[in-house]
Amino acid sequence: MERAEAYGFSGAMSGAFLLSCLLFAAVSRRQRGPYMDEVFHVPQAQAYCHGRFLQWDPMITTLPGLYLLSVGVVKPAAWLLGWTGSVVCSVGMLRFINLLFSAGNFYLLYLLLFKIHQKNKAVSGFQRILSALTLAAFPTLYFFTFLYYTDPGSVFFTLFSYLMCLYGNHKTSALLGFCGFMFRQTNIVWTVFCAGNVVAEKLNEAWKIELQKKKDEKISFRKRSFSDLTRVLQFLVEYLLSPKNLVTLIALTWPYIILVSLFFVFVFVNGGIVVGDRSSHEACLHFPQLFYFLSFTVFFSFPHLLTPTKMRKFLLSLKKHPVQYSLVTVISLFLIWKFTYVHKYLLADNRHYTFYVWRKVFQRHELVKYLLVPFYLFAGWSFADTLKSKSIFWILMYFVCLLAVTVPQKLLEFRYFILPFLIYRLNIPFLSLYRQLLELAFYILVNAVTFYLFLNRTFQWENSDEVQRFMW
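User: That's the sequence. What structure does it adopt?
Assistant: Structure tokens below.
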């Protein structure tokens, strides 16, 4: 990092943290008590603060990583600063943990952008800083910086694990992956993703050698023809069936294999992935979640995905491959018809934006969910097109992880999309400076509206005196 870039990054991070502190104070003044899921998380953390480690709220469905880390941070701080009484492990103190995670996420996002795009000399230090700032302000993640939720910590350990993986520190990466798993069980998918990065790199090296042997210097990955895909899948099967190659891959990925094995032991002993209340968190094959994720990504990455050039290229592709697109359309319609699930929380809780998205869009008419298929096709094509700079093996691995982390979820919840979105966004090429500024301005606008609604547009339910607030 050059000196000017280091000063610029320090200034951006310090300014962002200061603004976050001011916003944190405003949120804490308006909402002093626990809100939404905090009514479960805060008492549980406070029980741990008082040494009651065997006490557990059965309504909590995640492992106690957030509470253990909170005690590990708050207790020593309280001892050093002489804090006593109710201030220790208060709601504000616990929420502040996530503010620290937010600063850590900013730094990790910058380091990941630097590492992933280090070969692209056309990217300036200012662009890296701007992109890191934009992703740190990603609205769905940034909002939960100010509440005591698992998301900021979950993202922190997952991004840290990914960074260590890229630097080849796989034992450290697996250990951090375990920390991420302790915050949210589904983060085990991103441990598999890290192992997949290693495997994809070895496969890509072997593929290049294979092409050189056959004196075939290039394969038209960018065209993504069916014959190319068949050829790649054939190579993949042959490579993985070789004992020598398997031994090499196991030697490289054994820390991840151990962690994933421990995860399966946990699932067997626990009787499922969810701890606590399982009635509202049943796994199912909810394939339309992939379509919702693609729509979510287009909305938050429109400078990348929703451009006139992209639309023209998509129409040309549509014209060139009508049979393939017709087949994908039929499959999409079938998946929507047979595998659409509506969770009871989605219909009942009018504090979440998803409630209004579902009511205003999908419940307008029974046919709306089918009429959106052309948009899903464009979103999927544009999404894949932005990843064409990655190897075919990396793309296959990412899509497997994307399916694993989204499809089993019955509830439409934007928080579940945070990590797959960030991983995707980190790995696509940089935009022009103008489009980067547009993306940042859009995130700032969305955050401003979100916090205005949360702080000022309160309401009450008929059967309750508690103040209700709108949120992601």
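The chain is about 70% helix and 0% strand.
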